[in-house]
Amino acid sequence: MKEKWHDKFLFNFLAHDADNAAAILEAGSGYVVPGIVSDHFTSVDDAVDKVNELKKVSNVVSIGLGGGGNADNWRKVLRIAVASEPGHLNQPFETASYSQGYLDRGNLDKQVVNALVKPTGEVGKIQLANAGSTMDVEAFMDIAASLGIESIKMMPVHGTEHVEELVYLTRIAQAKGIRGVEPAGGINVTNIGEIMAGVKDIDIEFFMPHIFGSAVDHETGKTIPEKVRAIFKTVEGLL
């Protein structure tokens, strides 16, 4: 990935263009992974052009599924990644290992592929994003590790509604050798502190909240640098 805040934390924000990406990187002291979501683009080529634009200011760009984590977009995300080598892409769990292998066989530079799961409302359980099956976190992490999956995305966490589940998942992921955990959904300046405090003592390689809607100017489509700064200021005293 890239250099991390306090050797652990990164933050994923949407970037409208290269200037917006540069502004949010500055606001986040460089600890930001700018991203796009696939459903904002009518064609793979348009998305590839945008990733290449963002790569002029960031060595890692994240490609999201879009549509609230719509698993049906996995092929589009993979096709964008093959053509642009973004560094990070989102996939449902069911296609994450396949996508990682496909990219590795293409002799691309290292791409981190996360695997999306959903919270269930019960600590120690997760739901697969596509199939809807519920699994014990420990058993799931054993399977994920055996498949070479490097990061687990939990979405939607609805801010802190599922924070106990998220903290437990992060602890088990670290114990099983998973590199990263990425929460998404409803995260903003009012709840990021509780989320970060819950995982700050877990020695996982990276923890990357995805903070989209709450930081975006919905008229311009740009992430607001002042909101990025506010998030960093909120959690700075916790770490």
TrEMBL record:
<dbReference type="InterPro" id="IPR010763">
    <property type="entry name" value="DgaF"/>
</dbReference>
<protein>
    <recommendedName>
        <fullName>2-dehydro-3-deoxy-phosphogluconate aldolase</fullName>
    </recommendedName>
</protein>
<dbReference type="InterPro" id="IPR013785">
    <property type="entry name" value="Aldolase_TIM"/>
</dbReference>
<dbReference type="Pfam" id="PF07071">
    <property type="entry name" value="KDGP_aldolase"/>
</dbReference>
